[in-house]
TrEMBL record:
SMART domains in the cross-refs: FeoA (SM00899)
InterPro entries: Fe-transptr_FeoA-like, FeoA, FeoA_core_dom, Transcriptional_repressor_C
Source organism phylogeny: Bacteria, Pseudomonadati, Bacteroidota, Chitinophagia, Chitinophagales
Ferrous iron transporter FeoA-like domain span: 3-74
Keyword annotations: Iron
Gene Ontology MF terms in the entry: transition metal ion binding
Name the UniProt record assigns to this protein: Ferrous iron transport protein A
Length: 75
């Protein structure tokens, strides 16, 4: 079952399956968020934004608005 990255809890992980069509898609792919790549949620800021994720071998901080366009298959 697919979930939006923005809805995942800290400590959860999965595999990026696809993106919503939007202008941030290319930016996210340039940062290593590509379909088939494992992603894990490392931390979520107290107010819920931004989200720290582990992807492509490094830690990346993205806005919740960007994370909602990434669909993940939960591991």
């Amino acid at each position: 079952m697919l979930h939006r990255l923005s809805e995942m809890k800290s400590g959860s992980s999965g595999v990026i399956e696809r993106f919503d069509e939007n202008e941030a898609q290319v930016k996210l792919m340039e940062m290593g968020c590509i379909p088939g790549e494992k992603v894990s949620v490392e931390a979520i800021a107290p107010m819920g934004d931004p989200i720290a994720i582990q992807v492509s071998g490094y830690c990346l901080s993205i806005r919740k608005n960007e994370a909602r366009h990434i669909w993940v298959e939960i591991a």
